[in-house]
Specification:
Blueprint lengths: L2 E2 L16 E2 L5 H7 L9 H8 L9 H5 L6 H9 L3 H11 L3 H7 L11 H6 L5 H12 L17 E5 L3 H12 L3 E6 L7 H4 L10 H10 L4 E5 L6 H10 L3 E3 L5 E2 L12 E3 H10 L8 E2 L1 E5 L3 H12 L4 E5 L11 H9 L3 E3 L2 E9 L2 E13 L2 E12 L2 E4 L3 E2 L12 E2 L2 E2 L12 E3 L11 H22 L7
Parallel strand pairs: 3-4, 3-6, 4-5, 6-20, 8-16, 10-11, 10-16, 11-12
Antiparallel strand pairs: 1-15, 2-9, 7-17, 13-14, 14-15, 18-19
Length: 468
């Protein structure tokens, strides 16, 4: 990497040759293979061999480490017995989105990190892959044959946001016998699962297949293209439903706040990933020859790796702190390195350099920690770039929540662990809740807990609902 002194934004001489952004950078046959399933499903023999490694621990640490509390030894024992329906039911009772979570959860820092086999053999039981094996095996069967639904209660709830938290809440309420109107702003339901994950993590349109399967539980009506825009809308929902659950995610991205940010070629990584997810022909997407991704989380990794898969020659992922502070797990970082992504640390963006209105590079200021705070060292680095992808986090559009009675802190909705906001009948969860984490499995747990809490609140108001 070249080192240079301060360089004015808008000049290109230090950033390299002219921009090169175009589609079809690679042969047509490359794309199907590049975006295929990153970790294909186990065969029966592979699953049985791996399941036999489980020690079926009493008070298993893997179950404790799972945010949704899946009884891991129980479902793995059922796989060993070739009882895949039983294994899947055990998973789905705790985590209805067990199929997606098996594909995208950072199991290496959750259940697998605490697996006893790690200490004994240096390698944990591959819990995530076994979970996928079990759930995938039953997805050709109606979901209602695996998860029961109570008799209709006659009550109706609204869930705003059809991502992991909203889906989990809707399914939980439906299983308790309630009708649910599930609203989402996008043309498709699924939220993060449909629009925000790397294509190779949920290949073959899995997010929609899982959504359709789960809606087979009954009682849930999905309304797409419906966006919450005002306090009046929310008041109408509350008036028409027994309770409302907000799982609206974080709908805006943070800006870099540096000169040159509006140049052509500078994009939000979230929008880039969503466009890629929805593209029927991956080769049609324009891709730069040199890409700089700014950020240190899983979104940054997904954007960087997929840029390489789309044919970028050079991809640099740049983070302002050190490796230990990155939001992306070590496994995600290793995945990026495996695909030829260059990782850089202790560099903060200072300016996007441009020529004729187009980004041609990014100037960074080197950082150091002094008494726990970042300070510039006075050194600068310049990376050439045709495309710059911003992956520095998202935020909630809080203006639409004014005059709703909700309390906000740090740009998120204040609510307890069950989603209670302090406004009767109004709950919130997932990323939009203060304390919510950017993990699918944690969002699912938020939705599960909120469904039970909404049901309990209704039952306290309407005693006949208690038997639903």
């Amino acid at each position: 990497m070249a080192s240079a002194g301060p360089h004015p934004s808008g000049t290109a001489s230090a950033a390299g040759p002219a921009p090169d952004i175009r589609p079809a950078r690679l042969p047509a046959e490359h794309y199907a293979q590049a975006f295929a399933d990153a970790a294909p499903r186990y065969s029966r023999s592979q699953a049985l061999v791996e399941a036999e490694r489980c020690l079926y621990c009493f008070d298993a640490p893997c179950t404790t480490a799972c945010p949704t509390g899946i009884d891991v030894p129980s479902f793995i024992r059922r796989i060993s017995d070739d009882n895949l329906r039983g294994a899947a039911r055990t998973i789905l009772e705790s985590n209805p989105l067990g199929g997606t979570c098996a594909r995208v959860c950072p199991t290496e820092v959750l259940c697998e990190q605490v697996c006893v086999r790690t200490a004994q053999q240096g390698k944990p039981v591959e819990i995530g892959r076994l979970q996928r094996y079990a759930v995938d095996a039953v997805m050709d069967q109606p979901i209602h044959t695996l998860l029961s639904r109570a008799a209709a209660s006659g009550e109706r709830f609204a869930v705003v946001g059809a991502g992991p938290a909203g889906l989990a809440c809707a399914i939980g309420l439906a299983r308790l016998g309630h009708a649910v109107n599930l609203y989402d702003a996008h043309p498709k339901g699924g939220g993060l699962n449909e629009y925000g994950l790397a294509t190779y993590k949920t290949a073959d349109n899995f997010a929609q297949a899982e959504l359709d399967w789960l809606l087979g539980i009954g009682g849930i009506t999905l309304h797409t293209g419906w966006r919450l825009r005002s306090a009046a809308q929310l008041a109408a929902l509350r008036a028409e439903h027994a309770g409302v659950y907000l799982a609206i995610g974080l709908d805006q991205t943070h800006g870099l706040g540096v000169p040159g940010e509006t140049l052509a070629g500078v994009r939000d990584a979230v929008a880039f990933i969503a466009e890629l997810r929805q593209a029927s022909d991956k080769s049609s997407l324009p891709m730069g020859r040199r890409v700089v991704v700014i950020g240190g989380g899983m979104t940054a990794v997904d954007a960087a790796v997929q840029s390489k898969l789309l044919g970028a020659d050079e991809v640099h992922m740049v983070y302002r702190r050190g490796p230990a502070q990155m939001g992306a797990s070590q496994a995600e970082q290793d995945w990026a390195l495996k695909h030829g992504v260059n990782l850089h640390h202790w560099l903060a963006p200072e300016a996007v350099l441009g020529s004729a209105g187009q980004a041609v590079g990014v100037r960074f200021a080197r950082q150091q920690l002094i008494e726990g705070r970042l300070h510039p060292t006075g050194e600068h680095e310049i990376l050439a770039a045709d495309m710059v992808l911003k992956a520095i986090g998202q935020k909630l559009e809080v203006s639409l929540l004014t005059d709703t009675g909700l309390s906000l802190e740090g740009g998120r909705i204040q609510a307890d662990d069950d989603g209670r906001t302090g406004v009767p009948g109004l709950y919130a969860g997932g990323d939009c809740r203060l304390g919510g984490r950017d993990l699918t499995v944690e969002a699912v747990q938020d939705g599960k807990r909120a469904a039970l809490a909404l049901h309990a609140e209704l039952s306290a108001r309407v005693p006949t609902a208690a038997g639903a």
